[in-house]
Every structure is written in structure tokens, then in C-alpha cells.
Amino acid sequence: MTQKKKIELTRLQGIIAVASFSSGVIIAAVCLFFIPPLGEIASSAISIVSELLVLCGAILGVKASYDVKFRKFEAELRDVIENEKKLNS
Q: How far apart are CA 65 and CA 45, in angstroms?
């Protein structure tokens, strides 16, 4: 996979993480505190959906953050190796 594709994938994961996390928090806040249910909806059903969305956002967010930091470390390591080769030549 090319470097550009990896960056695009990491950016997409970050966007999905933020959207998922935000959706989970909004669903939990709106459905549990502001809107009374029209029928019989267990609050546990709403809370499990929002908790799963928050979990998904957290996992994807951590992975995207790790990918960015790993890519920075890889670039710095590549620069050090290139500098060592120039000094030895």
C-alpha cells in the first residue's frame, strides 16, 4: 500500500472515529435525558447502542493516532539512516 493510501485510510479512520463517538454521546444524551419514549423502550437498549458507538470511536481513534505516530517515527528513522549514509560516504 502506498504512503498516500495509508494517510487517506488513517484520515478516514479518524473521521469515522469522531463521527461514531459523537453519535454515541448524542444518542445517549438525547434519548436518555431529553426525549421521553413514545412506546416501551428500555433505557438499557439505548445505552448499549450509545456505549458501542463510543467504544467503536475510541478504538478507531486510538488506531488512527497510533498510525500517525508510527509514520512520524518511521520518517525520522529513515532520515537518521540517510544522514548516517551521507556521513559514512
A: 30
Query: Angle CA(41)–CA(25)–CA(6) in degrees, nearest 5?
Result: 125
pLDDT at 37: 67
The arithmetic mean of pLDDT across residues 51-68, rounded, is 77
Distance of alpha carbon 14 from alpha carbon 11, whole angstroms: 5
> Residue 69's pLDDT is what?
85
Cell 428500555 sits on residue: 42
CA distance 83 to 71: 18
* Nearest residue to 70 (alpha-carbon basis) of 4, 1, 6: 6
Residue matched to cell numbers 470511536: 57
Using left for φ > 0, alpha for ψ between -120 and 50, and beta otherwise, residue 36 falls in beta
Q: How many CA atoms lie less than 13 Å away from 65 in the CB half-sphere?
A: 8
